[in-house]
Amino acid sequence: MINDNFKYSELTSKIIGSAFKVHSFLGNGFQEVIYQRALEIEMQMDGILFHREFEMPIIYKEHHIGTRRVDFLVDERISVELKAVIKLEDVHFAQAINYLEAYNLEVGLLINFGERSLNVKRLKNHKYKPSLEIKPY
User: Fold this and answer.
1) H-run or E-run covering 69
2) What is the rounded distance in angstroms from the CA atom of residue 101 to the CA atom of residue 80?
3) Contact at 8 Å (CB) between 48 and 75?
């Protein structure tokens, strides 16, 4: 059986590398959308397949109750949520985990460009169900 971390490590490392390039060029202090646009360019240059502002329905007991957008859905299997705040808070982690659960993704990244050094957190969805497919809205 393949180790979960190994299964995603090459791709998450490429994403993180792209984010480091953006942060080293721009530094901290910009709004989130600026980093999002720059990361889009950098990931394209690095050959990473992704959807930006990927929208998915939120389902509650078989009822569509709204939609949410993850900043990036990479290779149909990794969510990337960006922040540009002085310090990550519990609410940021909760949001990123909620996206993983809502989209049934196993792994995600929470990347904060707002600190002096880039802050990257790898997240795992403990409720992940391999048998379910992600379906774009």
Assistant:
1) strand 63-74
2) 13
3) yes
Map out the domains of the chain with their CATH numbers. 4-124 (3.90.320.10)
Q: What is the pTM of this model?
A: 0.88
80 — pLDDT class (breaks 50, 70, 90): very high
13 touches 46 (CB < 8 A): no
Q: Tell me which residue has tokens 């969510």.
A: 79
pLDDT (mean) for 77-104: 94
Q: What 3-state class would DSSP assign to 48?
A: coil
20: which 2 tokens? Answer: 């480091």
Are 73 and 54 within 8 A, CB to CB?
yes
Rounded average pLDDT over 34-41: 98
Residue 128 has pLDDT above 50, yes or no: yes
User: How far is residue 130 from each of residues 79, 104, 125, measured CA to CA in Å?
Assistant: 16, 8, 11
